[in-house]
Amino acid sequence: MHRRSFLTLLGGASAAGWSLAASAQQDGRVRRIGWLTGEAENAPGSSAERAAFREGLSALGWVEGRNLQIDLRFGANDPDHIHASAAELVRLAPDAIVTDGGAPINALRQLTQTIPIVFTGGPDPAAIGLLRNISRPEGNFTGFVNLEPSIIGKSLELLKEVAPRLTRVAIVFNPDLSPTAPAYVALIEAAAPTLGVKTFEMPIGNAISIVRALDTFAAVPNGGLLVLPPRNTIAIRETIIPLAAEHRLPAIYPGRSDAAAGGLLAYAIDRVEQSRRAATYVDRLLRGAKISELPVQFPTKFELVVNLKTAKATGLTIPEAFLLRADEVIE
Question: Could you list the residue range(s) of the whole structural domain that residue 180 is in?
Answer without folding.
Answer: 149-268+303-330
